[in-house]
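The instructor's notes for this session suggest beginning with a concrete chain rather than abstract definitions. Hand out the sequence below and ask the class to guess, before any prediction is shown, which regions might be ordered.
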Amino acid sequence: MAMIFKGSEVTEALNERIAADVEELKAKGTEPALAILRVGERGDDISYEKGATKRAEKVGVAIKNVVLPADVSEDALINEILKLNADDSIHGVLMFRPLPEHIDEDKVRNMLAAAKDVDGITDLSIAGVFAGIETGFAPCTPSACMEILDYFGVECKGKNAVVVGRSLVVGKPAAMMLLDRHATVTVAHSRTADLQSVARQADIIIACVGRAKMIDAGYLSDGQIVIDVGINVLEDGSLSGDVDYEAAESIVEAITPVPGGVGTVTTSVLMKHVVEAAKRIRA
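After discussion, reveal the predicted structure:
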Protein backbone atom coordinates (compact mmCIF):
# COMPACT_ATOMS: atom_id res chain seq x y z
CA MET A 1 0.00 0.00 0.00
CA ALA A 2 1.18 3.48 -0.85
CA MET A 3 2.15 6.06 1.74
CA ILE A 4 -0.45 8.83 1.76
CA PHE A 5 0.99 12.34 1.57
CA LYS A 6 -1.71 14.17 3.50
CA GLY A 7 -1.88 17.90 2.91
CA SER A 8 -2.97 18.53 6.50
CA GLU A 9 0.41 17.45 7.82
CA VAL A 10 2.22 19.83 5.48
CA THR A 11 -0.17 22.66 6.28
CA GLU A 12 0.22 22.29 10.03
CA ALA A 13 4.01 22.53 9.82
CA LEU A 14 3.86 25.38 7.32
CA ASN A 15 1.38 27.35 9.43
CA GLU A 16 3.66 27.14 12.47
CA ARG A 17 6.56 28.61 10.50
CA ILE A 18 4.39 31.33 8.96
CA ALA A 19 2.90 32.35 12.33
CA ALA A 20 6.39 32.64 13.82
CA ASP A 21 7.51 34.81 10.89
CA VAL A 22 4.42 37.00 11.27
CA GLU A 23 5.15 37.58 14.95
CA GLU A 24 8.74 38.49 14.13
CA LEU A 25 7.61 40.99 11.49
CA LYS A 26 5.02 42.51 13.82
CA ALA A 27 7.69 42.96 16.48
CA LYS A 28 9.60 45.02 13.92
CA GLY A 29 6.55 47.15 13.10
CA THR A 30 5.27 45.38 9.99
CA GLU A 31 1.88 43.62 9.89
CA PRO A 32 1.73 41.36 6.80
CA ALA A 33 -1.50 42.06 4.91
CA LEU A 34 -3.28 40.46 1.97
CA ALA A 35 -5.88 42.17 -0.20
CA ILE A 36 -8.43 39.82 -1.78
CA LEU A 37 -9.87 41.36 -4.94
CA ARG A 38 -13.08 39.71 -6.13
CA VAL A 39 -15.25 40.69 -9.08
CA GLY A 40 -18.80 39.36 -8.87
CA GLU A 41 -20.30 36.60 -6.76
CA ARG A 42 -18.92 33.34 -8.16
CA GLY A 43 -19.48 30.57 -5.64
CA ASP A 44 -16.02 29.04 -6.01
CA ASP A 45 -14.37 32.45 -5.53
CA ILE A 46 -16.39 33.11 -2.38
CA SER A 47 -15.56 29.67 -1.03
CA TYR A 48 -11.83 30.16 -1.58
CA GLU A 49 -12.04 33.66 -0.11
CA LYS A 50 -13.58 32.26 3.08
CA GLY A 51 -10.89 29.60 3.31
CA ALA A 52 -8.10 32.10 2.71
CA THR A 53 -9.54 34.47 5.30
CA LYS A 54 -9.74 31.70 7.88
CA ARG A 55 -6.16 30.66 7.17
CA ALA A 56 -4.98 34.27 7.41
CA GLU A 57 -6.62 34.65 10.79
CA LYS A 58 -4.91 31.46 11.96
CA VAL A 59 -1.40 32.69 11.13
CA GLY A 60 -1.93 36.39 11.90
CA VAL A 61 -2.02 37.86 8.39
CA ALA A 62 -4.38 40.84 8.00
CA ILE A 63 -7.04 40.72 5.26
CA LYS A 64 -8.56 43.51 3.20
CA ASN A 65 -11.55 42.48 1.07
CA VAL A 66 -12.23 44.43 -2.11
CA VAL A 67 -15.45 43.29 -3.78
CA LEU A 68 -16.58 44.81 -7.08
CA PRO A 69 -19.79 44.15 -9.03
CA ALA A 70 -19.67 41.76 -11.99
CA ASP A 71 -20.45 44.62 -14.36
CA VAL A 72 -17.58 46.80 -13.14
CA SER A 73 -15.82 48.62 -15.94
CA GLU A 74 -12.31 47.66 -16.93
CA ASP A 75 -11.04 51.12 -16.04
CA ALA A 76 -12.62 50.98 -12.59
CA LEU A 77 -11.05 47.57 -11.93
CA ILE A 78 -7.64 48.79 -13.04
CA ASN A 79 -8.03 51.81 -10.77
CA GLU A 80 -8.61 49.51 -7.78
CA ILE A 81 -5.51 47.50 -8.67
CA LEU A 82 -3.40 50.64 -8.95
CA LYS A 83 -4.64 51.79 -5.54
CA LEU A 84 -3.60 48.46 -4.02
CA ASN A 85 -0.21 48.72 -5.74
CA ALA A 86 0.32 52.10 -4.11
CA ASP A 87 -0.92 51.08 -0.64
CA ASP A 88 2.17 50.41 1.48
CA SER A 89 0.08 48.63 4.12
CA ILE A 90 -0.81 45.89 1.60
CA HIS A 91 1.94 43.37 0.88
CA GLY A 92 0.13 40.92 -1.36
CA VAL A 93 -2.90 40.88 -3.65
CA LEU A 94 -5.00 37.87 -4.63
CA MET A 95 -7.22 38.59 -7.63
CA PHE A 96 -9.72 35.94 -8.58
CA ARG A 97 -10.01 34.75 -12.16
CA PRO A 98 -11.62 34.26 -14.59
CA LEU A 99 -12.81 37.84 -14.86
CA PRO A 100 -16.09 38.76 -16.59
CA GLU A 101 -15.99 38.48 -20.37
CA HIS A 102 -16.15 42.23 -20.97
CA ILE A 103 -12.77 42.69 -19.26
CA ASP A 104 -9.43 42.07 -20.98
CA GLU A 105 -7.98 39.68 -18.42
CA ASP A 106 -4.44 39.69 -19.81
CA LYS A 107 -4.32 43.48 -19.66
CA VAL A 108 -5.82 43.73 -16.21
CA ARG A 109 -3.77 41.03 -14.49
CA ASN A 110 -0.56 42.62 -15.70
CA MET A 111 -1.50 45.91 -14.03
CA LEU A 112 -0.79 44.25 -10.69
CA ALA A 113 2.68 44.98 -9.33
CA ALA A 114 4.76 41.81 -9.49
CA ALA A 115 6.08 42.49 -5.98
CA LYS A 116 2.52 42.03 -4.67
CA ASP A 117 1.52 39.23 -7.04
CA VAL A 118 1.43 36.46 -4.44
CA ASP A 119 -0.36 33.94 -6.69
CA GLY A 120 1.85 34.26 -9.76
CA ILE A 121 -0.70 35.63 -12.25
CA THR A 122 1.39 38.32 -13.95
CA ASP A 123 3.74 37.77 -16.86
CA LEU A 124 6.62 39.17 -14.78
CA SER A 125 6.01 36.65 -12.02
CA ILE A 126 5.92 33.74 -14.46
CA ALA A 127 9.06 35.05 -16.16
CA GLY A 128 10.71 35.09 -12.75
CA VAL A 129 9.86 31.42 -12.23
CA PHE A 130 11.42 30.51 -15.58
CA ALA A 131 14.48 32.72 -15.02
CA GLY A 132 14.92 31.70 -11.38
CA ILE A 133 14.74 35.27 -10.09
CA GLU A 134 12.46 36.95 -7.53
CA THR A 135 10.44 39.33 -9.70
CA GLY A 136 7.25 38.08 -8.08
CA PHE A 137 5.98 34.72 -6.85
CA ALA A 138 5.21 31.36 -8.38
CA PRO A 139 1.55 30.29 -8.56
CA CYS A 140 0.40 28.79 -5.28
CA THR A 141 -0.62 25.38 -6.61
CA PRO A 142 2.75 24.26 -8.03
CA SER A 143 4.40 25.82 -4.99
CA ALA A 144 2.17 23.59 -2.84
CA CYS A 145 3.40 20.57 -4.79
CA MET A 146 6.97 21.49 -3.92
CA GLU A 147 6.07 22.05 -0.26
CA ILE A 148 4.65 18.52 -0.14
CA LEU A 149 7.75 16.99 -1.72
CA ASP A 150 9.99 18.92 0.67
CA TYR A 151 7.97 18.07 3.78
CA PHE A 152 8.00 14.34 3.08
CA GLY A 153 11.71 14.37 2.23
CA VAL A 154 11.41 13.46 -1.44
CA GLU A 155 14.81 13.99 -3.06
CA CYS A 156 14.36 15.42 -6.56
CA LYS A 157 18.03 15.69 -7.52
CA GLY A 158 18.85 13.29 -10.33
CA LYS A 159 15.33 11.89 -10.47
CA ASN A 160 13.16 11.60 -13.59
CA ALA A 161 10.06 13.75 -13.15
CA VAL A 162 7.11 13.79 -15.51
CA VAL A 163 4.62 16.64 -15.35
CA VAL A 164 1.40 15.67 -17.10
CA GLY A 165 -0.13 19.02 -18.02
CA ARG A 166 1.33 22.16 -19.56
CA SER A 167 -0.69 25.12 -18.27
CA LEU A 168 0.98 28.29 -17.01
CA VAL A 169 -1.03 27.89 -13.82
CA VAL A 170 0.46 24.54 -12.78
CA GLY A 171 2.30 22.41 -15.33
CA LYS A 172 4.95 24.73 -16.73
CA PRO A 173 5.90 26.43 -13.44
CA ALA A 174 5.96 23.03 -11.69
CA ALA A 175 8.43 21.82 -14.32
CA MET A 176 10.68 24.83 -13.73
CA MET A 177 10.55 24.34 -9.98
CA LEU A 178 11.52 20.68 -10.36
CA LEU A 179 14.42 21.73 -12.58
CA ASP A 180 15.53 24.08 -9.80
CA ARG A 181 15.68 20.99 -7.59
CA HIS A 182 17.93 19.31 -10.20
CA ALA A 183 15.37 16.80 -11.46
CA THR A 184 15.36 15.74 -15.11
CA VAL A 185 11.95 16.91 -16.25
CA THR A 186 9.60 15.88 -19.05
CA VAL A 187 6.52 18.00 -19.66
CA ALA A 188 3.87 15.72 -21.14
CA HIS A 189 0.23 16.26 -22.00
CA SER A 190 -2.84 14.57 -23.44
CA ARG A 191 -1.35 14.57 -26.95
CA THR A 192 2.03 13.10 -25.96
CA ALA A 193 2.76 9.99 -28.02
CA ASP A 194 2.73 6.83 -25.88
CA LEU A 195 2.08 8.86 -22.75
CA GLN A 196 1.68 5.73 -20.65
CA SER A 197 5.24 4.63 -21.41
CA VAL A 198 6.58 8.13 -20.69
CA ALA A 199 4.80 8.23 -17.34
CA ARG A 200 5.93 4.76 -16.31
CA GLN A 201 9.58 5.85 -16.56
CA ALA A 202 9.07 8.62 -14.01
CA ASP A 203 10.30 8.59 -10.44
CA ILE A 204 8.00 11.54 -9.69
CA ILE A 205 4.71 12.32 -11.43
CA ILE A 206 2.81 15.58 -11.08
CA ALA A 207 -0.63 15.07 -12.62
CA CYS A 208 -2.32 18.32 -13.63
CA VAL A 209 -4.05 17.49 -16.91
CA GLY A 210 -7.61 18.15 -15.73
CA ARG A 211 -9.18 14.79 -16.60
CA ALA A 212 -10.70 12.65 -13.88
CA LYS A 213 -8.83 9.37 -13.25
CA MET A 214 -6.92 9.67 -16.53
CA ILE A 215 -3.70 8.42 -14.91
CA ASP A 216 -4.60 4.79 -14.29
CA ALA A 217 -2.54 1.66 -13.67
CA GLY A 218 -1.17 1.72 -17.22
CA TYR A 219 0.72 4.94 -16.45
CA LEU A 220 2.21 3.81 -13.14
CA SER A 221 5.07 1.69 -11.86
CA ASP A 222 6.53 0.58 -8.55
CA GLY A 223 8.30 3.13 -6.39
CA GLN A 224 6.82 6.28 -7.91
CA ILE A 225 5.88 9.43 -6.01
CA VAL A 226 2.58 10.79 -7.39
CA ILE A 227 1.36 14.33 -6.74
CA ASP A 228 -2.23 14.65 -7.94
CA VAL A 229 -3.26 18.24 -8.58
CA GLY A 230 -6.57 17.48 -10.32
CA ILE A 231 -9.93 18.34 -8.76
CA ASN A 232 -12.75 16.94 -10.87
CA VAL A 233 -16.43 16.62 -9.97
CA LEU A 234 -17.88 13.23 -10.89
CA GLU A 235 -21.49 12.54 -11.87
CA ASP A 236 -22.38 11.52 -8.32
CA GLY A 237 -21.02 14.83 -7.00
CA SER A 238 -17.89 13.34 -5.46
CA LEU A 239 -14.41 14.65 -6.15
CA SER A 240 -11.70 12.84 -8.06
CA GLY A 241 -8.16 13.69 -8.97
CA ASP A 242 -6.48 13.17 -12.33
CA VAL A 243 -5.12 9.90 -10.95
CA ASP A 244 -7.15 6.75 -10.41
CA TYR A 245 -6.43 6.66 -6.69
CA GLU A 246 -7.68 3.12 -6.09
CA ALA A 247 -5.50 1.72 -8.87
CA ALA A 248 -2.46 3.78 -7.87
CA GLU A 249 -2.56 2.99 -4.17
CA SER A 250 -1.50 -0.61 -4.70
CA ILE A 251 1.32 0.28 -7.13
CA VAL A 252 3.14 3.48 -6.25
CA GLU A 253 5.28 4.33 -3.24
CA ALA A 254 3.37 7.47 -2.25
CA ILE A 255 0.44 9.56 -3.47
CA THR A 256 -1.51 12.66 -2.49
CA PRO A 257 -5.24 12.14 -1.95
CA VAL A 258 -8.05 14.16 -3.56
CA PRO A 259 -9.49 15.86 -1.62
CA GLY A 260 -7.04 16.35 1.22
CA GLY A 261 -3.83 16.74 -0.73
CA VAL A 262 -2.42 19.61 -2.78
CA GLY A 263 -5.50 21.81 -2.43
CA THR A 264 -5.20 21.74 1.34
CA VAL A 265 -1.75 23.32 1.14
CA THR A 266 -2.40 26.14 -1.35
CA THR A 267 -3.88 28.71 1.05
CA SER A 268 -0.96 28.24 3.45
CA VAL A 269 1.41 28.81 0.53
CA LEU A 270 -0.53 31.99 -0.24
CA MET A 271 0.09 33.23 3.31
CA LYS A 272 3.75 32.23 3.05
CA HIS A 273 4.05 34.39 -0.07
CA VAL A 274 2.40 37.36 1.67
CA VAL A 275 4.89 37.09 4.52
CA GLU A 276 7.79 36.77 2.08
CA ALA A 277 6.54 39.88 0.24
CA ALA A 278 6.52 41.77 3.54
CA LYS A 279 10.07 40.61 4.26
CA ARG A 280 11.27 41.75 0.84
CA ILE A 281 9.83 45.21 1.41
CA ARG A 282 11.67 45.50 4.73
CA ALA A 283 14.96 44.28 3.23
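Then share the key points. The chain has ten helices and eleven strands. The domain at 29-114 is CATH 3.40.50.10860 (Rossmann fold).
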